[in-house]
Amino acid sequence: MDADVVVSAVGMTVIINLSYALACFRKKISYVKLLDKFIHCPMCVGFWCGGLLSYLNGDMVLTVVFSSFTASLCSYTWYLLMKYFIDKYD
Question: At a CB cut-off of 8 Å and minimum separation 6, what does 6 contact?
Fold first, then answer.
């Protein structure tokens, strides 16, 4: 498992979940109830981004699974930290 895969997955998750650039994309996807829950869940998006990036990196299957779970955990932790500081200073 490479750290760059996990860090990249966390970055992708933040961009997909929180960025203003993809707000219109999230709004369009929100019409489907299942996708609405998925696109607003940092753990879900982090898991799939981690798995995709690890697979594209050419890792073995077990490494892809571990990278997915690690990216999910790191994405959720980063989301909680960002939410705390945004709420505190906004």
Answer: 50, 67, 70, 71, 74
Residues 56 and 33: their CA atoms lie apart, in Å, by 29
Amino acid at 68: S
Question: Residue 30 has what DSSP assignment?
Answer: T
pTM of the shown model: 0.86
Q: What is the pLDDT of residues 9-56, one digit of tens each?
A: 999 999 998 888 999 988 888 888 888 888 989 999 999 999 999 999
Q: What is the C-alpha separation between 86 and 80, in angstroms, rounded?
A: 10
C-alpha dist (Å) from residue 71 to 28, 29, 53, 75, 90: 25, 23, 10, 6, 27
Distances (CA, A) of 74 to 1, 25, 28, 90: 14, 24, 27, 23
- pLDDT tens-digit map of 56-78: 998 899 999 999 999 999 999 99
